[in-house]
Write a structure and sequence with these properties.
mainly alpha; globular
């Protein structure tokens, strides 16, 4: 799946401006040195429309079975990615929009960016990264694509209505799971660019993203050799799959890995090597991604063998990660006692000597992920009622210890519902939903809690908000209609429903007008 992809996938971008990085990159990064975009991108695809385009594509991505909806991995990627974004002022662009990072189940070493700041990493990439700087280098590269607005510049060059290529973009994103070249063909077929021009554009965009990504890495305090390390690994992988020969480099939609590696090594020589100790979270996420990447019978067997081999590593972080991975694997197979035993071993492995600060007391160093897995085990189906009550207390303590963790916040809501404490659950989830309106999982949990209470009107109103977040406005309107007809709907609820329905219908009408469609709102929605 790709729109702008790193190395192994093609980028749809027009030719970059003259290289703004002629001088060696210094360790101190000045955001004013990033290239200034011309008026073409803004004129033909504004930042606001670009973001909207990305959101449209993401609705399809989230429905794809390959989309990895795993909260600990999503939380880690977003913490890592947003730390990189904030390291250089101005990367969020004119709209100051948030970047969103997510994962796809795919063994290929790849990452990609979509319009508006949506960036994905394949599980194969996460597993293959040997240190966090390598993974950060890939993410920084994709952030470079977004910050330089390569997609907007590609579409702007064509002087077309920005919504016309939308279908081709979505098709390209879905097709590229099997072949990035096929995705590029679909995309460029939809946009009508000449093949050689497409190749020239994407090669220059990849080079530009490399250079901007290098700056982002340096500003974020990562080891800049990590990007070169990833290119070396990609080079090895491409030799096995058959990389395009150097004499045919002009036919490649991106620069050859060897070419980019030489360029990156030249830049690295200008910056002193920076030693960096990876957080335990990085190793835990790698182990978790390995387990979730392939959950077939053969996949689980292979994963178990790999993790058991990793147990023999001398490094304690690697041992603990293997034990954590085996705990996740046991949990996914319903072996709750075994899962808890492996988790206890992982915690014990990284437990420091007396008098040394425990990893469990340092958020970001495995503590949140250990706490989250402990709650997953307690909240798993098949646990006795007494464990459900324990889960509430443990989740409450965890959310206070790690207030920034959205995964833990969700687990507290699940724990309250699982312990049949529905009044507490609805109070908590209502407050959370007010604070995080775009969090569809909160609305789903709130709907379940209302259902348990027998509050049917409120249940449908909460489901309507969940559909709004998912972009399914007709389904949201249908849920409001069900809420209006519920036997327990109050006068106040009716007023809220009427106001919300008017708002959603207005949004539907505006979206149809953007697509050039006509027709009666109610006929189309019902």
């Amino acid at each position: 799946m790709t729109a702008i992809a790193l190395c192994t996938a093609a980028a749809f971008a027009i030719a970059a401006p003259a290289d703004p990085f002629q001088k060696p990159v210094s360790q101190k990064v000045d955001s004013t040195r990033l290239p200034t975009l011309g008026d073409t991108a803004r004129q033909d695809l504004s930042p606001v429309v670009e973001r909207k385009l990305g959101e449209e594509i993401m609705r399809d991505v989230r429905r794809d079975p390959a989309y990895l909806d795993d909260e600990p991995i999503l939380e880690y990627l977003n913490n890592l990615g947003n730390a990189l974004v904030t390291s250089v002022p101005g990367l969020r662009g004119e709209t100051n929009a948030d970047f969103t990072f997510f994962a796809m189940r795919d063994v290929n070493l790849n990452a990609f960016a979509l319009p508006g700041g949506f960036i994905a990493a394949h599980t194969g990439l996460i597993v293959a990264a040997q240190n966090e700087s390598e993974l950060a280098g890939v993410m920084a590269h994709e952030i470079g694509h977004v910050s330089q607005r390569h997609i907007a510049r590609a579409i702007g060059q064509q002087k077309q209505d920005v919504l016309l290529p939308l279908a081709a973009m979505i098709l390209a994103a879905l097709a590229s799971k099997a072949s990035s070249d096929a995705a590029m063909g679909v995309l460029m077929g939809g946009q009508g660019l000449a093949a050689q021009r497409q190749l020239d554009f994407s090669r220059d965009a990849e080079r530009e993203a490399d250079r901007v990504g290098f700056q982002i890495m340096a500003a974020g305090g990562y080891d800049v050799t990590g990007m070169a390390g990833f290119f070396k690994r990609l080079q090895s992988a491409s030799k096995l799959s058959g990389e395009i020969p150097a004499q045919l480099a002009h036919l490649s939609s991106h620069p050859l890995t060897a070419e980019r590696l030489v360029d990156m090594q030249a830049r690295i020589r200008e910056i002193p090597k920076k030693a960096r100790i990876d957080p335990l979270d990085f190793q835990l996420v790698r182990a978790r991604a390995r387990v979730l990447q392939d959950e077939s019978v053969n996949g689980r067997r292979e994963t178990k063998n790999l993790l058991e081999t990793q147990l023999k590593e001398p490094h304690r972080q690697l041992q603990a990660a293997a034990q954590y991975g085996l705990a996740v694997l046991a949990l996914r197979q319903g072996q709750l006692t075994e899962a808890q035993a492996w988790l206890d071993k992982a915690r014990a492995t990284v437990k420091p000597k007396e008098g040394v600060l425990s990893a469990e007391s340092r958020a970001g160093d495995g503590a949140t992920m250990f706490a989250g897995l402990a709650l997953e085990i307690k909240l798993a189906p098949g646990q006795p009622a007494a464990v459900a009550q324990e889960a509430v207390q443990e989740a409450d303590a965890a959310r206070q210890r790690y207030p920034l963790s959205r995964a833990i916040a969700h687990q507290y809501g699940e724990a309250l519902i699982g312990a049949a404490r529905y009044d507490e659950a609805t109070r908590y989830l209502r407050d959370q939903a007010q604070l995080y309106r775009e969090d569809g999982k909160l609305h789903d949990m709130l709907a379940r809690a209302y259902s348990k209470q027998g509050k049917i009107a409120l249940q449908h109103m909460a489901l309507a908000e969940s559909y709004v977040v998912a972009g399914a406005l007709p389904a949201a309107v249908a849920q409001l209609d069900l809420a209006r007809k519920a036997g327990d709907v109050s006068f106040y609820d009716q007023a809220v429903i009427d106001a919300r329905e008017r708002e959603l219908r207005a949004r539907q009408k505006a979206e149809r007008e953007e697509r050039g469609e006509k027709g009666d709102d109610k006929d189309k929605d019902r």
